[in-house]
Design goal:
Blueprint lengths: L13 E3 L1 E2 L2 E2 L8 E2 L10 E10 L1 H10 L1 E2 L2 E2 L1 H15 L11 E10 L12 E4 L8 E3 L12 E10 L5 E3 L6 H9 L2 H11 L10 E4 L4 H13 L4 E5 L2 H7 L7 E4 L5 H10 L4 E6 L7 H6 L1 E9 L6 H10 L5 E4 L7 H11 L1 H11 L15
Parallel strand pairs: 13-14, 13-16, 14-15, 16-17, 17-18
Antiparallel strand pairs: 1-4, 2-3, 5-8, 5-11, 6-7, 8-9, 9-12, 10-11
Helix pairs in contact: 4-5, 4-10, 10-11
């Protein structure tokens, strides 16, 4: 056990950048983290079983290494391994995002307050972009065709990290998928609940509605008292997946990157929306979402593909009076709520399980939505 002082937010693991020998940023912005196995007293070490790259990061990496329609899995694995070895964490240098992992607790520092014990099967609820990580198996079992990555190695959680024990009544891979996006439904519920007693039930628009975070957001909106629920998907295949589930009142096929195309399609479906939730893992959806939202409404950006400068300047440029929220991935009780939705809402569970069994043979097309 390392005896020198530590920081509950992980500053002691930041190796670069330093100013006068002192870390100048938090771990998420660090260029390199200390990945030594030895723990400080408030840390926890987890033996890695599966990494789950976030959708925006995986899409960028897979697209980069796809040539003439064929994914170069060897090159993809090599780049992920290089990122982890160089930075001491999995943080895509293009998107800035990471993902999360599941594994078994190996060691718990005596001063840890996370409530974990050796042997606990857990999912980390903090981003891999700030989690010290070492991979030891060369990702030999990963075919590169999806964001779920079988892996061996270890990760370190800080004093103020977040992790949750995996539920015993759920496939670990399914639980990982749910926990990866568990911040979305909790935040949607919070936003929609704020409308209670203030007038008509809000119209809710979800972009990327057939995906993981999108379907959970629709279920949360329904439970929170939303009025009309408009689901936007990019193609007829996604529409067929979502239609008839009861999660949305109307399913619209539209390009979420087209400002006029999206806003007109949403208006025809009963919009504009009072609350718009962006769950799309491709860039360029900021202004279309804003234009599809009513004056005084809210836009929740729950995608790492979002350019927050484009969102802010885009709203200003069209004189849009909307509140814009960043889905930061954490709301108290978010993991338990998302898991409970999957248990109770058959349509959501079916959508997740269908994705669990899917093994795509190609990288997704740029217009596909699979957050």
């Amino acid at each position: 056990m390392i005896a020198t002082p530590s920081s509950p937010i992980g500053l002691h693991r930041v190796l670069e950048p330093l100013v006068d020998g002192v870390p100048s940023v938090l771990p998420q912005l660090a260029a390199r983290l200390d990945t030594r196995r030895e723990l400080w007293p408030d840390e926890v070490r987890v033996a890695v079983e599966t990494l789950n790259l976030d959708a925006a990061s995986y899409r960028q990496l897979a697209t980069k290494h796809t040539h003439r329609g064929t994914l170069d899995a060897t090159a993809l694995r090599a780049e992920v391994l290089d990122i982890v070895a160089t930075r001491g964490k999995m943080q895509n240098p293009v998107t800035g995002s990471g993902g999360m992992l599941i594994g078994a607790v190996e060691e718990v520092g005596p001063a840890s307050t996370l409530g974990l014990a050796v042997g606990d099967h857990v999912a980390t609820l903090v981003s891999l972009s700030l989690t010290p990580l070492v991979i030891t198996d060369g990702l030999a079992r990963w075919d590169g065709c999806e964001e779920r990555v079988p892996a061996e190695g270890y990760a370190v959680l800080f004093g103020r990290s977040i992790a949750a024990r995996l539920p015993e009544d759920m496939d670990p891979e399914l639980a990982l998928m749910v926990m990866d996006v568990c911040g979305a439904p909790a935040l949607v519920r919070k936003v929609i609940s704020s409308y209670a007693g203030s007038g008509p039930a809000p119209t809710v628009l979800v972009l990327g509605a057939a995906g993981k975070s999108g379907s959970l957001s629709l279920a949360a909106a329904l439970e929170a008292g939303a009025g009309r629920r408009i689901a936007v998907v990019p193609n007829e295949a996604e529409a067929a997946t979502l239609s008839g589930t009861g999660l949305a009142d109307i399913v619209v096929v539209a390009d979420a990157r087209s400002p006029l195309g999206l806003s007109e399609a949403v208006a025809a479906a009963g919009g504009p929306a009072d609350v718009t939730v962006v769950c799309v893992d491709v860039p360029g959806c900021e202004q279309p979402a804003i234009l599809s939202t009513a004056p005084g409404g809210s836009v929740v950006f729950f995608s790492m593909a979002t350019s927050f400068a484009a969102a802010a300047l885009g709203a200003e440029g069209v004189a849009a009076d909307v509140t814009m929220l960043i889905g930061n991935g954490y709301t108290p009780g978010h993991a338990a709520y998302a898991l409970d939705l999957v248990r109770r809402v058959d349509a959501v569970r079916h959508l997740f399980e269908s994705r669990l069994g899917r093994r795509p043979a190609r990288t997704p097309r740029r217009g596909d939505i699979a957050p």
